[in-house]
């Protein structure tokens, strides 16, 4: 009777800001990202996770659901961005004003702006 080798993996999901759910799993060596998602129970706990357009990654790099896992992999489930980062930066810059942001701030008394 052969014992199948198991590898530890961690699955992480953040449904909202400052809320993180982390699940540690022991899976067979040939497991895929999809199998880890199904074994974690997060799909039942969070029905908002849609596998058809789920964006997942391993250690911050985009991965497919069919990708095989290795020992100590960290699977991350990404949620869509609420605001485009470029738009958010423009709005923040407009609120702060040109004289109080970035290169336009005077660093020392008597210095020209941008230096």
Q: Can you summarize this structure?
A:
This protein is of the alpha+beta class. It has helices at 33-40, 42-45, 85-96, and strands spanning 6-16, 19-28, 55-58, 61-63, 74-78.
List the helices and strands and how they pair.
Layout: E1 6-16, E2 19-28, H1 33-40, H2 42-45, E3 55-58, E4 61-63, E5 74-78, H3 85-96
Parallel strand pairs: 1-5
Antiparallel strand pairs: 1-2, 3-4, 3-5
Question: Which residues form runs of ≥5 with pLDDT under 50?
Answer: none
Describe the biggest sheet? 5 strands, mixed
What is the CATH class name of the largest domain?
A: Alpha Beta
Q: Calculate the terminal CA-CA distance, rounded to whole Å.
A: 73 Å
Q: How much helicity do the residues have?
A: 10-25%
Please give the radius of gyration in angstroms: 22 Å
Quickly give the CATH architecture of the largest domain.
Answer: Roll
Describe the structure.
The chain has 115 residues and is α+β, with helices and mostly antiparallel strands. It has two domains: 6-78, Beta-grasp domain (Ubiquitin-like (UB roll)); 82-115, no CATH class. The chain is built from three helices and five strands, in the order E-E-H-H-E-E-E-H. It has helices at 33-40, 42-45, 85-96; strands spanning 6-16, 19-28, 55-58, 61-63, 74-78. It has a five-stranded mixed sheet, with helices on one face. Strand 1 (6-16) and strand 2 (19-28) form a beta hairpin.
What tags apply to this protein structure?
single chain; 115 residues; alpha+beta; Ubiquitin-like (UB roll); 2 domains; 5-stranded mixed β-sheet; 3 helices; 21% helix
């Amino acid at each position: 009777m052969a014992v199948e080798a198991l590898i530890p993996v961690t699955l992480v999901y953040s449904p909202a800001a400052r809320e993180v759910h982390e699940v540690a799993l022991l899976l067979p060596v040939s497991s895929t990202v999809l199998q880890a998602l199904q074994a974690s129970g997060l799909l039942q706990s969070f029905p908002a996770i849609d596998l058809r357009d789920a964006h997942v990654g391993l250690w911050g790099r985009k991965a497919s659901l069919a990708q095989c896992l290795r020992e100590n992999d960290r699977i991350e489930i990404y949620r869509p961005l609420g605001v485009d980062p470029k738009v958010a930066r423009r709005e923040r810059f407009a609120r702060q004003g040109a004289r109080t942001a970035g290169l336009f701030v005077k660093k020392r008394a008597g210095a020209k702006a941008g230096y």
